[in-house]
Design goal:
Blueprint (H helix, E strand, L loop, with lengths): L2 E11 L2 E8 L4 E4 L2 E3 L6 H13 L3 E14 L2 E12 L12 E5 L14 H9 L1 H4 L6
Enzyme class: hydrolase
Organism: Atopobium deltae
GO biological process, one term: DNA replication
């Protein structure tokens, strides 16, 4: 089975995280912005590049959160996940997504996440206070 190696940005702003809605022929649902890691690029570099390409934003401080391994029917996904703040004065603009939504902890499961993101989102809800504690970013 083919492996797709991507990175994603879990973007935090004022106690909320950014969810992005994808609607294309293969995948329809909510996800975190990100994409394929290009040759010679680190997962973090890919994450920052994808945020610029998909949302027209620069990201501020951040840290590695988790690696997700997920088997879709026709490929295996390895997803490196980072948590970032937005740089001051930045606000995401959808370029490849049909909708953006800021979610607080109680709303995390209110959207239909793509399958690879479900356990990641659940873990964030469980560890919310630890992940987003004052001064962590």
């Amino acid at each position: 089975m083919k492996t797709l190696h991507i990175s994603c940005a879990i973007i935090v702003h004022k106690g909320h995280i950014l969810a992005c809605k994808r609607e294309d022929e293969r995948f329809c649902g909510w996800e975190f912005p990100g994409g394929k890691i290009e040759p010679g690029e680190t997962a973090e570099q890919a994450c920052l590049r994808e945020a610029r390409e998909e949302l027209s934003v620069e990201l501020g401080p951040g840290f590695f959160y988790d690696t997700v391994e997920y088997d879709y029917p026709d490929f295996h996904l390895t997803m490196e996940c980072f948590i970032y703040e937005l740089k001051e004065g930045q606000m995401p603009q959808p370029r490849v997504h049909t909708e953006l939504r800021w979610l607080e902890r109680g709303e995390l499961l209110a959207v239909d996440w793509l399958a690879a993101n479900v356990n990641l989102v659940k873990s964030m809800g469980f560890l919310w206070e630890h992940i987003f504690a004052e001064g962590c970013l």
